[in-house]
Amino acid sequence: LLTAAPISWIKLVMNCLLPVMLFDKGGQVLNHYRNKSTGQLAGATLLLQWLQFTGRLCTTLISGAAADFIAPMALNVFFATVIGSQWIIYRGNKGEKAE
User: Fold this and answer.
1) 95 exposed, middle or buried (CB, 10 Å; 0-12, 13-18, 19+)?
2) Where are the alpha helices (DSSP H) in 36-92?
């Protein structure tokens, strides 16, 4: 179906993802910071997500894709790095519920 859509529509959808990702992942990062815990996140899952996002970003850059496609992928890599870092920092913390 995506091959039938004009490239301008696909770029528009990709750029609409930016505020959604900022709200979703930004809230998750803030929640982890407040609780000083990442909950039950698994290190292997975080590593695989980071590898997936980084690989996607690299292949997009190598293929010479438009900047409209690069921004959401770079944001994914950034948040995956931040959440992975939080997992390392807060590992072992039970955390306290922020009120």
Assistant:
1) middle
2) 43-63, 67-90
Amino acid code (one letter) for 1: L
The 10s digit of each residue's pLDDT in 12-36 is: 777 777 788 888 888 888 888 888 8
How many other β-carbons are positioned within 10 Å of the β-carbon of residue 14? 16
Residue 72, judged by CB atoms within 10 A of its CB (0-12, 13-18, 19+), counts as buried
Return the closest-CA partner of residue 47 out of 18, 85, 17, 95.
85
Pairwise CA distance, residues 46 & 85, whole Å: 10
